[in-house]
């Protein structure tokens, strides 16, 4: 049961003045989040043009900077199809990394998910199986990859809370029926961030917060940055113990 901080995602620079977009900024921000209670970091490397990138020239310096700033902290990345917009390019990029993340999230809604998972396993990188729908959960079960993943990432994008909670419960029900007993990390986005943090705390699941998912604190004010979001989530988890 941990708090993971997702420090940037696909957000653009105008989303928040403290959004970290280069390796040095990510390293400083990551260290501040760890100091605030983050057990893990989830990052999206950027190329020189500021766009998300999985290519080694973006990933390697980002991972190296984070390793130096946050020794001993688990660091994860995304393999989302939109990043390279080319499945073969994504696979080639992963194969070319020399500074490896500890784990990578794989969206089960994406066609190339099985191939990406296999490539990650071959490189010794843990897998967060990203499930955004009941269909994603059923696909994971049918692929028989559940027992081989580090964690199940239930990530719900619906903004109407009742709908989002229903989808999340539906995903969990599929996993339960299949007897898939893996660690679960639950998170929402924007309007559902904090309700899902509380839901995770109630169920003894892990959660994540950060500027990738939203910029508001539980009281609705804009956070000063990722460390403030992290501290707020950690406080909710500690209060529930």
TrEMBL record:
<protein>
    <submittedName>
        <fullName>3-keto-5-aminohexanoate cleavage enzyme</fullName>
    </submittedName>
</protein>
<dbReference type="Pfam" id="PF05853">
    <property type="entry name" value="BKACE"/>
</dbReference>
<dbReference type="InterPro" id="IPR008567">
    <property type="entry name" value="BKACE"/>
</dbReference>
<dbReference type="InterPro" id="IPR013785">
    <property type="entry name" value="Aldolase_TIM"/>
</dbReference>
């Amino acid at each position: 049961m941990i708090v993971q901080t997702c420090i940037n995602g696909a957000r653009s620079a105008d989303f928040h003045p403290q959004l970290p977009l280069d390796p040095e900024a990510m390293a400083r921000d990551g260290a501040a989040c760890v100091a605030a209670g983050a057990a893990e970091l989830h990052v999206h490397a950027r190329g020189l043009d500021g766009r998300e990138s999985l290519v080694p020239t973006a990933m390697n310096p980002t991972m190296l900077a984070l390793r130096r700033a946050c020794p001993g902290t688990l660091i994860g990345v995304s393999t989302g199809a939109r990043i390279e917009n080319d499945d073969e390019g994504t696979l080639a990029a992963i194969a070319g990394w020399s500074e490896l993340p500890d784990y990578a999230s794989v969206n089960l809604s994406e066609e190339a998910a099985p191939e990406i998972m296999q490539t990650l396993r071959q490189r010794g990188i843990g897998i967060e199986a990203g499930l955004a729908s009941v269909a994603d959960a059923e696909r994971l079960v049918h692929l028989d990859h559940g027992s081989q993943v580090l964690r199940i990432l239930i990530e719900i994008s619906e903004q109407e809370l009742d709908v989002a909670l229903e989808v999340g419960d539906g995903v969990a029900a599929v996993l339960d029926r299949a007897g898939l007993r893996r660690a679960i990390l639950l998170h929402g986005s924007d309007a559902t961030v904090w309700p899902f943090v509380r839901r995770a705390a109630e169920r003894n699941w892990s959660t994540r917060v950060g500027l990738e998912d939203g910029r508001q604190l539980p009281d609705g004010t804009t956070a000063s940055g990722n460390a403030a979001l992290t501290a707020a989530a950690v406080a909710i988890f500690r209060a529930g113990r």
